[in-house]
Write a structure and sequence with these properties.
Layout: H1 11-20, H2 28-38, H3 51-59, H4 61-64, E1 68-71, E2 74-77, E3 79-83, H5 89-96, E4 100-105, H6 108-121, E5 137-141, E6 161-165, H7 176-186, E7 194-199, H8 217-225, E8 252-258, E9 272-278
Parallel strand pairs: 3-4, 3-6, 4-5, 6-7
Antiparallel strand pairs: 1-2, 7-9, 8-9
Helix pairs in contact: 7-8
Length: about 280
């Protein structure tokens, strides 16, 4: 197993990652695959789930509910998706809280690393609630923007929870309209679902490029309110806010927003959590 980079925010790492993706964004999926295949440079890997997600699951059941849902008169586990799941830490965490959790990665090697993590360190994710029990953890290889991978998901590939952390910011800004549209498509309306975004890196100047690409909470608001729409940005790389138009029926509404008390060190005092649902 490749070692986790001890200083994932170093200037050298950022420069190396930016140079690796200095190519048309349509070729970026292949560049992620190359990084996973090599396995010796994974600067986004923190080695554990984000504590902000742990605290959300522990403390905000009033907002997101528990791990069960009533569906067609039957009680079942909610399905959760973690796109760009890395080595699968957050997927294993969600399963320990009772969700049937799916981790999606574009790289076959990444999926292998997820399965390895599950086999070697699965005991680090004990069942949180004995009465509820554990859900299943499943790792899938596929393109988030395509449909083939959804055939491996029970229930037609719809989810009551989607968790995005370092996925949105890893995408070239040109992909943001498609990201928002895809989130709207995958998030369940009935039973109602929640999209959880751990917003990162809000401290980074958007004009410096990426990945990760700098963004602000307004970036999420504007794109999720207008899924699929090309939006204007200013010269500094900030999305232009248009609060007068929130009429898109496919749009998502932000229902809560706060700064977590705990998160990974790289996002301390700058990360935000936002929770969304369909209008």
């Amino acid at each position: 197993m490749a070692a986790t980079n001890p200083n994932p925010s170093s200037t050298d790492d950022r420069a190396r990652l930016k140079a690796h993706f200095d190519i048309a964004h349509t070729s970026h999926p292949d560049r992620w695959i190359k990084l996973w295949d090599a396995g010796d440079f994974l600067p986004w890997d923190r080695g554990t789930p984000n504590p902000a997600l742990i605290d959300l699951l522990d403390q905000r059941e009033d907002l997101i509910g528990d791990c069960f849902v009533e569906d067609a008169g039957k009680r079942r586990r909610k399905r959760a998706l973690v796109p760009g799941c890395g080595k699968g830490y957050d997927v294993l965490l969600l399963a320990s809280y009772g969700y049937d959790a799916y981790g999606l990665e574009v790289s076959e090697k990444a999926v292998e690393r997820c399965i390895e993590e599950k086999n070697v360190n699965g005991d680090k994710y004990p069942v949180k609630n004995v009465a509820a029990g554990a859900g299943k953890s499943t790792f899938v290889n596929g393109d988030f923007f395509a449909d083939a991978w959804r055939e491996e998901v029970v229930g037609g590939g719809m989810f009551e929870m989607i968790y995005d952390y370092t996925f949105f910011c890893a995408l070239n800004p040109a992909m943001r309209p498609a990201w928002a549209q895809r989130m709207s498509q995958l998030l369940s309306r009935k039973p109602p679902g929640h999209l959880i975004c751990l917003e990162f890196p809000t401290y980074k100047d958007p004009s410096t490029g990426g990945p990760p690409y700098g963004l602000t909470p307004e970036t999420y608001i504007e794109h999720l309110a207008h899924p699929g729409r090309e939006l204007p940005y200013d010269d500094a790389g900030h999305v232009k806010v248009d609060s007068s138009d929130r009429s898109n029926p496919e749009g998502l509404e932000r229902i809560d927003h706060w700064q977590p008390e705990r998160t990974h060190a790289i996002g301390k005092d700058t990360d935000w959590i936002s929770v969304w649902h369909h209008w």
